[in-house]
Amino acid sequence: MRFERREHRPLYLLIVAPVLAVIAALALSGILIAIAGAPVLDAYWRILTGAFGSRLSATETLTRATPLMLTGLAAAVAFRARLWNIGAEGQFYLGAIAVAAASAKVLGDLPAPVLIPLLLLVGAIAGMVLILIPLWLRLRFSVDEVVTSLLMNFIALLFVSMLIDGVLKDPLAFGWPQSQSISDHAMLPKLIARSRLHVGLVIAITLAIVVHLMQLRTVFGLQSRAAGLNPSGAVFAGVPLGKTLMKVACLSGGLAGLAGAIEVMGVKGYVTTDLSPGFGYAGIVVAMLANLNPLGVVLAAIFTATMFVGADGMSRGLGIPTYIADVTVALSLLTMLIALFFTQYRIRR
Amino acid sequence: MTVPVLEIEGVSKRFGTNLANDNISITLAKGEIVALLGENGAGKTTLMSVLFGHYMPDAGRILIDGMELPQGKPRAAIRAGVGMVHQHFSLASNLTVLENVMTGTEKLWSWRSGTSAARKKLLAISERFGLKVDPDARLGDLSVGEQQRVEILKALYNDARILILDEPTAVLTNIEAERLFATLKEMARQGLSLIFISHKLDEVMAAADRIVVLRGGRMVAERRASETSKAELAELMVGRRVTRPVREPSTPGALALEAVDVTVKIDGVERLKSISFRLREGEILGIIGVSGNGQAALVHLLSGTLSRASGTLLLFDESIGNLGVADVVSAGIGRIPEDRNEEGVIGEMAIWENAVLERISSSAFSRRGLVNRKAGMTFAKEIIGQFDVRGGGPASRTRLLSGGNMQKLILGRNLHQRPRILIAAQPARGLDEGAVAAVHARLLEARRQGTAILLISEDLDEVIALADRIQAIVGGRLSPPVEAEVADARRLGLMMAGEWHEIRKVDHAI
To answer: CA separation (Å) from B138 to B150, B278, B439?
Structure first.
């Protein structure tokens, strides 16, 4: 048996393969559910109703999906240009803490229509700043950014931890390490009253469409793709490699920083060191699930959020650990990668 | 007559609708060298993969010493004494030569690695066939020629009696290739049987006892090397009479590009040492030399991806500073890079994207940062039509094109705009006979239309056929030019060896 590269990728395959991958992943984790002694179909039904069964759960799922879309986009744009930004988690936190600091110390008194865009910008810039360090190391000394951007995560988190236990500490938090809350009019407007769902979802989806069009239709999109696929070929064709990677890095870091800013301004209102349950890392999974397609990122983020939110409901009802959500998402990533492989290769006897 | 060492009987192999091998039968005797000659895509590599067990044939069988070889089992082939030297070596660059050779032969359940016995055996083989190599050298530190020697040694270490070499000279310089063929002849003299795959007429005539010609998956002829000619083989291989076009005399026009004492440094090393040349419109200036002597720096300098340390470049009598790629392209300088896949195209991108990428910032193909996809597609369609690019439309992935068609695409995107100057590095390297003729015809047509062409090539025949004047590049230095009329192989050989003081100096100022 051997694999042969497909000459043409039929369109139906690109649609069918991801669907089959998700079904296969659900079937595989169904085995685990069965071993745990619960009825499999019932368990999946509870995941679905747990995630979308009521107005509350549906808005909760979408709220959870919002930061995942942004960190997913951050990973997708970077990976498309073969820039391995594993630092979205750190950029997320830096974006979040920058918003808290700016609101508490500098900009808090501005009116909302000015304040909100300004704070979002501050968050994005904070994310960019953090990624520029690994990028500079790569361009100047050829240091692998996988390692440096990953390590920056820990530095960023410890930095945030220092701030919220120090200058930004909320005096009203009974001694818990927690940043001061941002001012009320800095909070993002709600999309639906009496829920946590906020305008951030609209921002995330809009950005996904913008990034998609940018990759498809702009010179920058073409050049960044060329730089990722074949750097020496891109240089020969006159693509400014350093400049292009710089722009890609800023976009990626900015999106991750924005995710942190939106999570603070949309949901929490303050920063703690458990603001993110791994949104930055999960963004990598989301991007890979979406095959780095920006529009696919939206769907992949909703799928991932569904599994996590729904698994809570299932766990309460059937007594199965919520870890099944992690397992299902991880399995679906594996099956998706296999499915993508088969859109490019076929098996020969 | 004795039983042949190897018999391939009626092998057929189909991929989808493409019949890659159609009922092919070949025999190989002890001590014989057979060349498998054919254009790219003629089915040579497929046939050898069937022989080695990588592919299952749809029909036919393979006999070694009269015994049938089980199909689809490389291990059985190795055990029967078949060794394969791949075009892209299957070696690990972080291991030593000895470790590479031993890989796959060590016993899994043994505490002792048997290194000393292996070393003894390796040295004995290396001695016997004159394949000198240091067993403890790290593979990554060796030259390509030496790596190939390791690949051959590995096959011999596995007690191969039948050695298959897939385009062994594709990666070698001329001198290395000559050395390789001397080794192969020695092996044959000592009783080994060899098959080598090639599409180069010179080397099959020089090295093989017998030549089997494949075309379109069929075996079209079998000739003894002593009873055929290059012309006959070329015709058999291509299926029609091909003659490489040859330049006609012409009168060159104005001075297009002049270099005066140009030096280029990369990471502190001088890659070009105070070189000078003059290139006029409607003229082809050939730069010959063994690759690795500064050609890459020369191409990159003139392509706008490298800046010079000192010296002057004159473009139509105007001194120019260091140019970027966009400046070079808009100044009407076309560029054909040495390595198509590495620099010429981005394989995973569409043909139209590769056609426009180097001029994407011009107003014809983008406005305010937005790509004009329609204009790009039209441009690509024109290239495909005019330059006969086969194998895909403007939106297909470029990787799907064969080497020849990829080169036509690169030629097309340069020549479509009627460049004033064309920098062509190894434009026909690795192409089959038909594609070489097509590329040469295009270059000559551009010359006729007044383009000044700098042809950088290792192929003496190519340079002699096309160039008006010839300079040699050796160790980053450029020889004075000689007129093509007085350039013969002996003189060019001396120039390529750096001995240009030996030959009568040709007046530099023409």
So the answer is: 11, 43, 39
pLDDT, position B506: 46
Degrees to nearest 5, angle at CA B500 with B497 and B503: 120
CA distances from residue B167 to B195, B204, B404 in whole angstroms, order as listed: 10, 11, 17
How far off is chain A from B187, nearest CA to CA, in Å?
33
Asked whether residue B78 carries a pLDDT value surpassing 70, the answer given is yes
Q: Which residues of A310-329 are buried (b: 16+ CB within 10 A; e: fewer)?
A: bbbbbbebbebeeebbbbbb
Q: How far is B14 from chain A (nearest CA, A)?
A: 12
Q: What is the pLDDT of residues A235-268, one digit of tens each?
A: 999 999 999 999 999 999 999 999 999 999 999 9
3-state SS, residue A106 = helix
DSSP one-letter code for A169: B
The tokens describing B2, both together, are 């004795």
* Whole-number pLDDT of residue B308: 85
Q: Which amino acid is at B237?
A: M
User: Crossing angle for the helix pair A279-289 and A294-318, nearest 10 degrees?
Assistant: 120
Given B56, B324, B346, which is nearest A233 (Cβ)? B346
| Shortest Cα–Cα distance, A348 to chain B (Å) | 9
Question: Is B357 near chain A, with CB under 8 Å?
Answer: yes
Which letter, b or e, does each residue of A267-287 get, where b requires 16 or more Cβ atoms within 10 Å of its Cβ? bbbbbbeebbeebbbbbbbbb
Q: Which long-range contacts (CB under 8 A, 24 or more apart) does A212-221 make?
A: A212/A293, A212/A294, A212/A295, A215/A77, A215/A80, A215/A294, A217/B370, A217/B371, A217/B373, A218/B369, A218/B370, A218/B371, A219/B360, A219/B361, A219/B366, A219/B369, A219/B370, A219/B371, A220/A244, A220/A247, A220/B369, A221/B371
What tokens were used for B73?
């089992």
Q: A48: number of CA atoms within 13 Å, CB side?
A: 7
Q: Express each pLDDT in A7-17 by its tens digit.
A: 666 778 878 88
State whether residue A218 is helix, strand or coil.
strand
- Which residue does chain A place closest to B58, by CA atoms? A349
Over residues B186-233, the pLDDT tens digits come to: 999 999 999 998 878 888 888 899 999 988 888 988 999 889 888 888
Please provide the DSSP assignment of B58-98 as one string: SEEEEEETTEEPPTT-HHHHHHTTEEEE-SS----TTSBHH
For the record, the structure tokens of B82 come out as 């078949």
How high is the ipTM of this complex?
A: 0.81
Among chain A, residues having any CB pair with chain B shorter than 8 Å are 2, 4, 7-8, 217-223, 225-226, 229-230, 232-239, 349
Query: What region does B222 belong to: left with phi over 0, alpha with psi -120 to 50, or beta?
Result: beta
Q: Do the Cβ atoms of B300 and B274 come closer than 8 Å?
A: no
From residue B229, how far is each of A336, B35, B215, B224, B233 by CA, in Å? 56, 14, 18, 10, 6
Nearest-by-CA chain B residue for A5? B400
**CB-neighbour burial class of residue A241 (10 A; exposed 0-12, middle 13-18, buried 19+):** middle
* Model pLDDT, residue B111: 67
